[in-house]
Amino acid sequence: MHSVHFTAETSSNGVVERDFTLGEVPGVLWSPASGSDHAPLVLMGHGGGLHKKTPALAARAHDTVTTWGFTVVAVDAPGHGDRPRTAQDEQARADLRQAMAAGDAERIKSISVRYGAALAQRAVPEWQATLDALQALPEIGTEAPIGYGGGISLGTAIGIPLTAIEPRITAALFGGGFVVHQALIEAARRITVPVQFLLPWDDENVDRQSALALFDAFASKEKTLHANPGDHRNIRWIGVDNAFLARHLGHVGASPA
Amino acid sequence: MHSVHFTAETSSNGVVERDFTLGEVPGVLWSPASGSDHAPLVLMGHGGGLHKKTPALAARAHDTVTTWGFTVVAVDAPGHGDRPRTAQDEQARADLRQAMAAGDAERIKSISVRYGAALAQRAVPEWQATLDALQALPEIGTEAPIGYGGGISLGTAIGIPLTAIEPRITAALFGGGFVVHQALIEAARRITVPVQFLLPWDDENVDRQSALALFDAFASKEKTLHANPGDHRNIRWIGVDNAFLARHLGHVGASPA
Question: Which residue numbers of A have CB closer than 8 Å to B's CBs?
């Protein structure tokens, strides 16, 4: 088993940010400067084509640390961020660019589904290894409750199969904004932990019905669908239950903003 | 124009409850015991077969008064609560009972649609007259912001056509749980104020797609869909944005609980 190797540390506004590598996977851990012993741990996934420190993700991570006192971890998905691209990654990206240039919606969809599923297959064991390694750190340990913290698109396409097979995850925040395929629906049927699902109501290239079918498939007794108008690239979320993860993972020291 | 005639007053836990009649329409006004000058006014509708003081409605009204300092008004819908039933009401109820006994889903649906539309046609001008009369009270006046506060089923079947033609309503909370017909979709298309829409995800006798089509139809730039598992009769709402009306109507004195 690989262990976490910290490579850099910075601190701002009460949040410590530590870069790490775990084998060949680069990651980042955000935690309260005031300490985080056994605080709940939130796994955040980034969107397709983005990376572990994408501004929106980093902002949500900071918010989660300062509001709830949680620790947040993000890693670069295979072929994303600081990671090398395999021949498969390059081919999928080239195919996708070509299909987009041709405006071929069917082909965009089939490439996205195939590549998304391939990425998830590579990413799920990496997340599990990351969890193993983080739990070996004394500050996290095996007592910290663990939640999946989104986000939409690729972060959910990876998070659903991960949550379906990973009993350490006890609450999960998912979202729409990507093409849903049958394997994802089947993984959702195996998820029983509380789920919050954020749906951009007007995603241009994504079938709304398939996202609703995905929400329908979660076997969770507690699940919440929240939809606002807009595309996932420019949506303004309003009235979302921001306390969802805190309610399920338990809430540490810091008071809500 | 009829004016409000108060017939009884009680008070409990900081909430004054005043029964009134307006012509032949019986209503109830809940307001803060500490005073409510020009406080926002929330109109609450009750479900089919229920009445203005149904426990769930009264509880929501109390909560709205004590948390936000608002005034809440509810009236009995035509043929409901303390109101006499017309021959049309009796016929519709008898038809509905018969269709339910026969388990004839199509007939239940067609009666519900026809009767619901007829009730809305009678109820909308009553709500407008109620607004006129309440605005003539010095404690409310024409400065109080006005919102429609739900609820699901009949309360929404009446609230949508009301909000579509009533410019005094500047924010509205609606919900699913009833059969949506085309006239409602068309009324929804004329609504541009912020809308919060609560959808019971598993209503046995209601087509989920028609409720989603209704949410889709609102022309509002700001609209939020919130769904939880369950039937509208026994749903447990989780993670709903309870500050929705307060955010849009403005918030008086009392601090949020």
Answer: 196, 199, 201, 212, 215-216, 221-229, 238-241, 243-244
Grouped pLDDT means (10 residues each) for chain A, 257 residues: 93 96 96 91 93 94 95 97 94 92 90 91 97 96 94 90 97 91 95 97 86 96 96 87 94 47
How far is it, in rounded angstroms, from Cα B135 to Cα B80? Answer: 25
Cα-trace Rg, chain B? 18
- Which residue of chain A is at minimal alpha-carbon distance from B230? A221
Neighbouring-strand partners of residue A41? A71, A146
Domain spans, chain B: 5-249
List the one residue out of B165, B90, B99, B97 whose CA is nearest residue B127: B165
Q: Between A212, A239, A244, which is nearest B224 by CB? A: A239
pTM (predicted TM-score): 0.89
* Paired tokens of B140: 């409310």
Both tokens of B8, joined, read 């009884």
Distance CA B257, CA B255 (A): 6
Q: Name every chain A residue with its beta carbon within 8 A of the beta carbon of B195.
A: none
- What is the CATH T-level fold of the domain A5-83+122-249, as seen in this structure? Rossmann fold (3.40.50)
* The CATH classification of domain B5-249, taken from the options 3.30.1330.50, 3.40.50.1820, 3.90.950.10, 3.40.190.10: 3.40.50.1820
- The chain A residue lying nearest B240, using CA atoms, is A241
- What DSSP designation does B177 have? -
* A226: nearest CB among B216, B221, B226: B226
Degrees to nearest 5, angle at CA A73 with A71 and A74: 155
Are A243 and B239 an interchain contact pair (Cβ–Cβ within 8 Å)?
yes
